[in-house]
Amino acid sequence: MGRCHEKLGSTEMAKKAYNEVIELLPDSDAARLAQYRLENIK
Questions:
Q1: Rounded to the nearest 10 degrees, how much is the dihedral formed by the CA atoms of 21, 10, 1, 31?
Q2: How many domains does the structure of the chain reveal?
Q3: 3-state class of 25 per DSSP?
Q4: CB neighbourhood size of 9 (10 A)
Q5: How far is Cα 25 from Cα 12, in angstroms, rounded to an integer?
Q6: Which residues touch 15 (CB under 8 Å, ≥6 apart)?
Q7: Low-confidence ranges of the chain (pLDDT < 70)
Q8: What pLDDT shows up at residue 42?
Q9: What pLDDT was estimated at residue 6?
């Protein structure tokens, strides 16, 4: 979901989506990817 928001230019919504993944699944591959996307979001 975060990636979709990014592509649509809605970075705040993307950040929320990524943070939600990190919060709900902290030890998952999805959380690691979400953290990476957060660090590289424009």
A1: -30
A2: 1
A3: coil
A4: 9
A5: 20
A6: 2, 38, 41
A7: none
A8: 73
A9: 92
